[in-house]
Protein backbone atom coordinates (compact mmCIF):
# COMPACT_ATOMS: atom_id res chain seq x y z
CA UNK A 1 0.00 0.00 0.00
CA UNK A 2 1.22 3.49 -0.82
CA UNK A 3 0.72 6.42 1.55
CA UNK A 4 0.83 8.84 -1.41
CA UNK A 5 -2.32 9.69 -3.35
CA UNK A 6 -1.31 7.74 -6.45
CA UNK A 7 -0.16 4.20 -5.70
CA UNK A 8 2.72 2.80 -7.70
CA UNK A 9 0.76 0.53 -10.04
CA UNK A 10 -0.58 0.81 -13.56
CA UNK A 11 -4.26 0.68 -12.60
CA UNK A 12 -3.89 3.63 -10.21
CA UNK A 13 -2.16 5.64 -12.94
CA UNK A 14 -4.89 4.80 -15.41
CA UNK A 15 -7.59 5.77 -12.88
CA UNK A 16 -5.81 9.10 -12.33
CA UNK A 17 -5.85 9.83 -16.07
CA UNK A 18 -9.58 9.08 -16.22
CA UNK A 19 -10.26 11.42 -13.29
CA UNK A 20 -8.20 14.18 -14.96
CA UNK A 21 -10.18 13.80 -18.16
CA UNK A 22 -13.48 13.85 -16.22
CA UNK A 23 -12.35 17.03 -14.46
CA UNK A 24 -11.56 18.75 -17.76
CA UNK A 25 -14.88 17.61 -19.24
CA UNK A 26 -16.78 19.07 -16.29
CA UNK A 27 -14.93 22.38 -16.74
CA UNK A 28 -15.84 22.37 -20.47
CA UNK A 29 -12.14 22.13 -21.27
CA UNK A 30 -10.49 20.06 -23.99
CA UNK A 31 -8.29 17.14 -23.04
CA UNK A 32 -6.66 16.65 -26.43
CA UNK A 33 -3.13 17.75 -27.31
CA UNK A 34 -0.20 17.64 -29.70
CA UNK A 35 3.56 17.24 -29.83
CA UNK A 36 6.48 19.02 -31.47
CA UNK A 37 6.64 16.38 -34.21
CA UNK A 38 3.16 17.31 -35.45
CA UNK A 39 1.36 14.34 -33.89
CA UNK A 40 -2.11 14.92 -32.48
CA UNK A 41 -3.43 13.13 -29.42
CA UNK A 42 -7.11 12.52 -28.79
CA UNK A 43 -6.71 12.65 -25.03
CA UNK A 44 -4.34 12.51 -22.06
CA UNK A 45 -4.56 8.73 -21.96
CA UNK A 46 -3.20 8.54 -25.50
CA UNK A 47 -0.30 10.84 -24.56
CA UNK A 48 0.88 8.57 -21.77
CA UNK A 49 0.11 5.35 -23.61
CA UNK A 50 2.20 6.48 -26.59
CA UNK A 51 5.01 7.27 -24.17
CA UNK A 52 4.94 3.63 -23.14
CA UNK A 53 2.98 3.99 -19.90
CA UNK A 54 -0.35 2.53 -18.74
CA UNK A 55 0.19 -0.98 -20.14
CA UNK A 56 1.60 -3.03 -17.26
CA UNK A 57 3.91 -2.59 -14.27
CA UNK A 58 7.05 -3.68 -16.06
CA UNK A 59 6.69 -1.44 -19.12
CA UNK A 60 5.74 1.45 -16.83
CA UNK A 61 9.01 1.05 -14.97
CA UNK A 62 11.19 1.02 -18.08
CA UNK A 63 9.16 3.85 -19.65
CA UNK A 64 9.70 5.92 -16.53
CA UNK A 65 13.46 5.45 -16.79
CA UNK A 66 13.32 6.41 -20.47
CA UNK A 67 11.11 9.45 -19.76
CA UNK A 68 13.40 10.90 -17.07
CA UNK A 69 16.63 9.99 -18.87
CA UNK A 70 15.62 12.12 -21.82
CA UNK A 71 15.21 15.41 -19.94
CA UNK A 72 18.11 14.60 -17.63
CA UNK A 73 20.43 14.12 -20.60
CA UNK A 74 19.14 17.27 -22.25
CA UNK A 75 19.90 19.48 -19.21
CA UNK A 76 23.12 17.70 -18.36
CA UNK A 77 24.62 18.34 -21.82
CA UNK A 78 26.60 21.56 -22.12
CA UNK A 79 26.02 21.85 -25.88
CA UNK A 80 22.28 22.13 -25.17
CA UNK A 81 22.39 24.28 -22.06
CA UNK A 82 25.04 26.62 -20.68
CA UNK A 83 25.19 26.91 -16.90
CA UNK A 84 24.05 30.53 -17.14
CA UNK A 85 20.80 32.49 -16.79
CA UNK A 86 20.41 32.42 -20.55
CA UNK A 87 20.79 28.64 -20.44
CA UNK A 88 18.21 28.34 -17.68
CA UNK A 89 15.71 30.43 -19.63
CA UNK A 90 16.26 28.90 -23.06
CA UNK A 91 17.70 32.08 -24.58
CA UNK A 92 15.39 34.49 -22.73
CA UNK A 93 17.91 35.86 -20.25
CA UNK A 94 16.43 39.34 -20.69
CA UNK A 95 13.16 38.15 -19.09
CA UNK A 96 14.77 37.11 -15.82
CA UNK A 97 14.61 40.55 -14.24
CA UNK A 98 10.89 41.00 -15.01
CA UNK A 99 10.19 37.50 -13.86
CA UNK A 100 11.93 38.02 -10.52
CA UNK A 101 10.35 41.44 -10.01
CA UNK A 102 6.81 40.01 -10.36
CA UNK A 103 7.74 37.02 -8.17
CA UNK A 104 8.99 39.37 -5.46
CA UNK A 105 5.68 41.24 -5.29
CA UNK A 106 3.77 37.96 -5.19
CA UNK A 107 6.01 36.56 -2.46
CA UNK A 108 5.66 39.74 -0.41
CA UNK A 109 1.85 39.52 -0.66
CA UNK A 110 1.86 35.87 0.38
CA UNK A 111 4.05 36.47 3.40
CA UNK A 112 2.02 39.48 4.50
CA UNK A 113 -1.17 37.41 4.21
CA UNK A 114 0.22 34.67 6.49
CA UNK A 115 0.55 35.59 10.20
CA UNK A 116 2.83 32.57 10.76
CA UNK A 117 5.21 33.49 7.93
CA UNK A 118 5.15 37.17 8.94
CA UNK A 119 6.18 36.18 12.46
CA UNK A 120 8.99 33.95 11.23
CA UNK A 121 10.16 36.69 8.89
CA UNK A 122 10.34 39.06 11.85
CA UNK A 123 12.44 36.48 13.73
CA UNK A 124 14.71 35.87 10.69
CA UNK A 125 13.54 32.27 10.49
CA UNK A 126 12.16 31.90 6.97
CA UNK A 127 13.15 28.84 4.97
CA UNK A 128 12.63 28.05 1.31
CA UNK A 129 13.02 25.30 -1.24
CA UNK A 130 13.70 25.99 -4.92
CA UNK A 131 12.62 22.99 -7.00
CA UNK A 132 14.15 22.26 -10.41
CA UNK A 133 16.60 24.96 -9.41
CA UNK A 134 19.16 24.79 -12.21
CA UNK A 135 22.02 27.08 -11.13
CA UNK A 136 19.83 28.73 -8.46
CA UNK A 137 18.45 31.75 -10.31
CA UNK A 138 15.45 32.09 -7.97
CA UNK A 139 17.45 31.53 -4.78
CA UNK A 140 20.01 34.16 -5.76
CA UNK A 141 17.61 36.66 -7.32
CA UNK A 142 14.65 36.31 -4.96
CA UNK A 143 15.08 34.24 -1.80
CA UNK A 144 18.46 35.34 -0.48
CA UNK A 145 17.93 39.10 -1.01
CA UNK A 146 14.52 38.59 0.61
CA UNK A 147 16.22 37.39 3.80
CA UNK A 148 15.55 33.64 3.68
CA UNK A 149 17.75 32.02 6.30
CA UNK A 150 17.77 28.63 4.67
CA UNK A 151 17.48 27.85 0.95
CA UNK A 152 17.36 24.25 -0.24
CA UNK A 153 17.91 23.82 -3.97
CA UNK A 154 16.80 20.61 -5.68
CA UNK A 155 18.06 19.89 -9.17
CA UNK A 156 18.45 16.75 -11.27
CA UNK A 157 21.55 17.80 -13.23
CA UNK A 158 24.86 17.41 -11.33
CA UNK A 159 26.53 19.81 -13.77
CA UNK A 160 24.04 22.62 -13.07
CA UNK A 161 23.99 21.92 -9.35
CA UNK A 162 27.79 22.14 -9.20
CA UNK A 163 27.64 25.55 -10.87
CA UNK A 164 25.12 26.85 -8.31
CA UNK A 165 27.38 27.78 -5.32
CA UNK A 166 29.69 29.88 -7.52
CA UNK A 167 26.73 31.57 -9.21
CA UNK A 168 25.09 32.30 -5.84
CA UNK A 169 28.33 33.51 -4.25
CA UNK A 170 30.41 31.96 -1.49
CA UNK A 171 28.91 33.80 1.46
CA UNK A 172 25.26 33.43 0.51
CA UNK A 173 25.86 29.80 -0.49
CA UNK A 174 26.52 28.99 3.18
CA UNK A 175 22.76 29.38 3.75
CA UNK A 176 22.00 26.88 0.97
CA UNK A 177 21.74 23.10 0.76
CA UNK A 178 22.38 21.74 -2.72
CA UNK A 179 20.39 18.58 -3.31
CA UNK A 180 21.06 16.81 -6.58
CA UNK A 181 17.96 14.69 -7.07
CA UNK A 182 14.95 14.33 -9.35
CA UNK A 183 11.78 15.92 -8.00
CA UNK A 184 10.01 12.62 -8.62
CA UNK A 185 12.19 11.19 -5.82
CA UNK A 186 12.63 14.19 -3.54
CA UNK A 187 11.07 13.53 -0.16
CA UNK A 188 11.85 16.26 2.38
CA UNK A 189 11.06 16.08 6.08
CA UNK A 190 7.57 17.28 7.00
CA UNK A 191 7.25 20.78 8.46
CA UNK A 192 10.45 22.15 6.90
CA UNK A 193 9.66 25.02 4.54
CA UNK A 194 7.81 28.32 4.54
CA UNK A 195 8.02 28.69 0.78
CA UNK A 196 8.39 25.97 -1.84
CA UNK A 197 9.03 27.48 -5.26
CA UNK A 198 8.43 25.31 -8.34
CA UNK A 199 9.24 27.23 -11.49
CA UNK A 200 9.55 26.08 -15.08
CA UNK A 201 10.08 22.42 -14.27
CA UNK A 202 6.72 20.63 -13.76
CA UNK A 203 6.72 19.88 -17.50
CA UNK A 204 9.34 17.19 -16.87
CA UNK A 205 7.24 15.14 -14.47
CA UNK A 206 4.63 12.56 -15.41
CA UNK A 207 1.13 13.26 -14.06
CA UNK A 208 1.33 10.67 -11.27
CA UNK A 209 4.83 11.72 -10.20
CA UNK A 210 3.77 15.37 -10.19
CA UNK A 211 0.74 14.61 -7.99
CA UNK A 212 2.84 12.63 -5.51
CA UNK A 213 5.61 15.25 -5.54
CA UNK A 214 3.08 18.02 -4.77
CA UNK A 215 1.57 15.89 -2.02
CA UNK A 216 5.00 15.46 -0.38
CA UNK A 217 5.78 19.16 -0.76
CA UNK A 218 2.43 19.97 0.90
CA UNK A 219 3.58 17.87 3.89
CA UNK A 220 6.93 19.70 3.88
CA UNK A 221 5.25 23.07 4.54
CA UNK A 222 5.41 24.72 7.94
CA UNK A 223 2.12 26.05 9.31
CA UNK A 224 1.06 29.02 7.18
CA UNK A 225 3.59 28.11 4.45
CA UNK A 226 2.86 28.17 0.73
CA UNK A 227 3.91 26.39 -2.45
CA UNK A 228 4.27 28.68 -5.46
CA UNK A 229 4.04 27.11 -8.87
CA UNK A 230 5.10 29.35 -11.72
CA UNK A 231 5.07 27.80 -15.15
CA UNK A 232 4.05 27.96 -18.78
CA UNK A 233 0.49 27.03 -19.72
CA UNK A 234 -0.98 26.27 -23.14
CA UNK A 235 -4.42 27.69 -23.84
CA UNK A 236 -6.14 25.99 -26.74
CA UNK A 237 -5.17 22.39 -26.08
CA UNK A 238 -4.77 20.49 -22.83
CA UNK A 239 -1.11 19.77 -23.50
CA UNK A 240 1.74 20.40 -25.90
CA UNK A 241 4.62 17.94 -25.67
CA UNK A 242 8.13 18.90 -26.74
CA UNK A 243 10.07 15.87 -27.91
CA UNK A 244 13.45 17.70 -27.84
CA UNK A 245 13.86 17.82 -24.08
CA UNK A 246 10.96 15.51 -23.17
CA UNK A 247 8.67 18.07 -21.60
CA UNK A 248 4.93 18.60 -21.60
CA UNK A 249 3.31 22.02 -21.25
CA UNK A 250 -0.15 21.65 -19.71
CA UNK A 251 -3.21 23.91 -19.72
CA UNK A 252 -4.05 25.86 -16.58
CA UNK A 253 -7.07 23.65 -15.91
CA UNK A 254 -5.00 20.48 -16.36
CA UNK A 255 -2.55 21.82 -13.76
CA UNK A 256 -5.42 22.68 -11.41
CA UNK A 257 -6.74 19.15 -11.70
CA UNK A 258 -3.30 17.81 -10.68
CA UNK A 259 -3.16 20.17 -7.69
CA UNK A 260 -6.54 18.89 -6.51
CA UNK A 261 -5.42 15.31 -6.99
CA UNK A 262 -2.54 16.04 -4.61
CA UNK A 263 -5.11 17.00 -1.93
CA UNK A 264 -4.01 20.65 -2.06
CA UNK A 265 -5.91 23.88 -2.73
CA UNK A 266 -5.26 27.33 -4.09
CA UNK A 267 -4.69 29.96 -1.39
CA UNK A 268 -7.46 32.57 -1.09
CA UNK A 269 -7.08 36.14 0.18
CA UNK A 270 -9.30 38.04 2.66
CA UNK A 271 -11.85 38.66 -0.12
CA UNK A 272 -11.96 34.91 -0.82
CA UNK A 273 -10.24 35.49 -4.16
CA UNK A 274 -7.76 32.88 -5.31
CA UNK A 275 -4.13 34.01 -5.18
CA UNK A 276 -3.21 33.40 -8.80
CA UNK A 277 -1.35 36.18 -10.58
CA UNK A 278 -0.50 36.08 -14.30
CA UNK A 279 2.83 37.48 -15.39
CA UNK A 280 1.57 40.28 -17.64
CA UNK A 281 4.77 41.75 -19.04
CA UNK A 282 6.21 38.86 -21.04
CA UNK A 283 6.20 39.13 -24.85
CA UNK A 284 3.50 37.32 -26.84
CA UNK A 285 5.89 34.59 -27.99
CA UNK A 286 6.05 33.29 -24.39
CA UNK A 287 3.33 30.96 -23.11
CA UNK A 288 1.01 32.55 -20.52
CA UNK A 289 2.67 32.16 -17.10
CA UNK A 290 0.57 32.09 -13.92
CA UNK A 291 1.96 32.22 -10.38
CA UNK A 292 -0.26 29.91 -8.35
CA UNK A 293 -0.19 29.95 -4.54
CA UNK A 294 -1.00 26.51 -3.18
CA UNK A 295 -1.44 25.16 0.31
CA UNK A 296 -2.80 22.21 2.23
CA UNK A 297 -6.51 21.72 2.89
CA UNK A 298 -6.48 21.67 6.71
C1 LIG B 1 13.80 25.79 -17.60
S1 LIG B 1 14.97 25.35 -16.36
C2 LIG B 1 14.38 26.36 -15.02
C3 LIG B 1 15.39 26.53 -13.93
C4 LIG B 1 14.87 27.37 -12.75
N1 LIG B 1 13.67 26.84 -12.18
C5 LIG B 1 14.67 28.80 -13.17
O1 LIG B 1 13.49 29.26 -13.20
O2 LIG B 1 15.65 29.47 -13.45
C6 LIG B 1 14.40 23.73 -15.91
C7 LIG B 1 15.21 23.06 -14.81
O3 LIG B 1 14.51 21.90 -14.35
C8 LIG B 1 15.47 20.87 -14.16
N2 LIG B 1 14.78 19.57 -14.18
C9 LIG B 1 14.30 18.92 -15.25
N3 LIG B 1 13.74 17.75 -14.86
C10 LIG B 1 13.88 17.67 -13.52
C11 LIG B 1 13.52 16.70 -12.54
N4 LIG B 1 12.90 15.58 -12.88
N5 LIG B 1 13.84 16.94 -11.26
C12 LIG B 1 14.49 18.08 -10.89
N6 LIG B 1 14.85 19.04 -11.77
C13 LIG B 1 14.55 18.84 -13.07
C14 LIG B 1 16.44 21.06 -15.30
O4 LIG B 1 17.65 20.37 -15.11
C15 LIG B 1 16.57 22.58 -15.28
O5 LIG B 1 17.55 22.98 -14.38
What is the CATH topology classification name?
Rossmann fold
Number of helices: 11
Could you list the spans in which at least 5 consecutive residues all have pLDDT below 50?
none
Helical percentage = 40-55%
- Characterize the main sheet: 8 strands, mixed
CATH superfamily: Vaccinia Virus protein VP39
Which molecules other than protein and nucleic acid are bound?
Answer: S-adenosylmethionine
Q: What series of H and E elements makes up the topology?
A: HEEHHHHHEHEHHEEHEEEHEEE
Shape: globular
Mean of residue pLDDT values: 97
CA gyration radius, whole angstroms: 18 Å
N/C terminus separation: 24 Å
The tally of strands reads 12
By CATH reckoning, the class would read Alpha Beta
Structural class: alpha/beta
Name the CATH architecture.
3-Layer(aba) Sandwich
GO cellular component, one term: cytoplasm
Pfam families: Methyltransf_PK (PF05891)
GO biological process, one term: methylation
Organism: Chaetoceros tenuissimus
Amino acid sequence: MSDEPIANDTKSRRDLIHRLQDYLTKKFQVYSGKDSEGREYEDIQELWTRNGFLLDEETDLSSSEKWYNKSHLYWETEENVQATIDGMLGGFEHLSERDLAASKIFLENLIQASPEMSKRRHENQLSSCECGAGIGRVSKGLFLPFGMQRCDLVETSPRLMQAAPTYIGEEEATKCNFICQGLQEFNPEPNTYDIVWIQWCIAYLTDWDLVNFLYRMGKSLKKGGVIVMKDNTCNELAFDSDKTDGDITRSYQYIRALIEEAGLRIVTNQDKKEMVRWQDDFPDEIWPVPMIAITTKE
